[in-house]
Structures are given as structure tokens and as C-alpha cells.
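Q: I have 91 residues here and want to know how they pack in 3D. Can you give me a structure?
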Amino acid sequence: MKKIFKWIGIVLGSLIGLIFMLAAILYFKGSARLNKIYEIPADNISIPTDTASLAAGRHLVETLCAHCHTNDLSGKTWFSFPPAARLILRT
């Protein structure tokens, strides 16, 4: 009877050890992927400066952005919980 308990203990101990090893491997692999820094080359973007483009941009800002941000688009922090979200309230 002692041999059976001994072998059950060895098998369970081995399984628990393998589970901990697998968890450690997955943790370190996931951390490496999350902390990887990607190099993205900058594109050359031409920014139009004519009055029609500036007026169209002003219209977009006033209709889409101004309700949450101030006139200079800086905004005011209304709710801040860094791991999850940051909400901006218009001042």
C-alpha cells in the first residue's frame, strides 16, 4: 500500500511541477511579446496649408472633437484610471 501512495505522490508531484514550468514559460513569453518595441518608419506626409483645407479641418474639429476637448484640444481630465481608461471632459 505504501508503494501505491509513493507512486501517486511522484506522479502528482511531477504533474504539478510540469504545470508550474508551463505557466512560467507562458508568463515570460507573454511578457516578452507585450514589452516588445516595434520600429515603424515614418512616412513623408504632405500637409496642405491652403485656406480650403484649413477650413475643412476647423469644421471637423468643431463638429467631432470640440465637445470633449477645449478649443486648443488640450481637454480636461474627468476620470483617470491608468490601467484601463482616461476620460476627458470639456472645460
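Q: Anything worth noting?
A: The chain has a mean pLDDT of 82. Residues 15 and 55 are 67 Å apart (CA to CA).
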